[in-house]
Amino acid sequence: MVNLELYKVFHAVAKYGSLTRAAQELYISQPAVSQSIKQLESQLGVPLFNRTHKGMELSSSGGKLIAKKIEEALMLIESAENSISELKSTATGTVRIGATDSIFSHLIAEKLAQFNEKFPAVRLELLSSTTPETINQLKEGRCDVGFVNLPIDDPEIKFIGNVTLLTDIFVAGKKFENLKGKQIPLKALQDMPLLMIEDNTVHRNTIAAFTRNLGIELSPDLEGANWDLMVKLAAKGMGVGCVPREYCQEQLDSGELFELDVNPPLPVRGVGIVLSKYANASYALKQFIALFD
């Protein structure tokens, strides 16, 4: 007879590679975890883990053969249970949303308002952070859903879908009007005062990878952590700003800024919705994500 609890313990140990972490996750003692693993190994007749100095490692003769199937089976069971629960559910509780300030203000503020109007009983907790910080919050269970700059590559993160595309452009204010209407080689920007978002962000990493392939190294004269600040400084004439068009459209429309005709243009990026691979989405969270379909 299948003992589901034994497989839940196996999954937790396989996920964390540690008896201690698995015990904490399951709210049971470490000896209980160890005993469950021994019992399951006895039932199956094969060792499931190799005990190493680094922790618990899946064995090639047993653990690696069943780990993925066990994970899929547990997810199917949870999905079935959630489906039953949702038949009698209403959207309540808290939805913790991670995103950058700019994504909150420029891309999802309207959806937040729509959701609040439709489900006033749900508390929205907005966690403003960079994309890497949002990913870590998801993995650590401190965030329910993330809106992040793409691309990302993390096996513990599940991509749900795109929210929008972002077009990175170079903009300037009246001080640089001599550049308006001219086609400017991307390489020429190396000699201009550049304003760019801080280093080690998805935006900067994407641009760096693109320009280096062309033999171009863009080194900013000023770095900032906030897109709105970059836009204001560019409008004040402090330099040529590299920002997503979607975050400065109002200034472009008003004439405070103009877009430089740069050749070749920078690649288009995306903003996507992501969840932790191991998280169970609540009814309220599913309703919030559905607004972006």
Task: Please describe what this structure looks like.
With 293 residues, the protein is α/β, with parallel strands linked by helices. 42% of the residues lie in helices and 24% in strands. Strands 3, 4, 5, 6, 8, 9, 10, 11 and 13 form a 9-stranded mixed sheet that branches. It has a two-stranded antiparallel sheet with strand order 1-2. Helix 7 (202-213) links the parallel strand 8 (194-197) and strand 9 (222-224). It is elongated. The two termini are 42 Å apart. The mean pLDDT is 91.
Q: Classify the beta-strand content into a percent band.
A: 15-25%
What is the overall number of helices? 10
Rounded to an integer in angstroms, the radius of gyration calculated over CA atoms is: 25 Å
Q: How does the major sheet shape up?
A: 9 strands, mixed
Q: Count all strands and give the number.
A: 13
Order of helices and strands: HHHEEHEHEHEEEEHEHEHEEEH
User: Which structural class matches the secondary elements?
Assistant: alpha/beta
- State the distance separating the first and last CA atoms: 42 Å
Helix content: 40-55%
Average pLDDT reading? 91
Note the overall shape: elongated
Low-confidence segments, ≥5 residues, pLDDT <50?
A: none
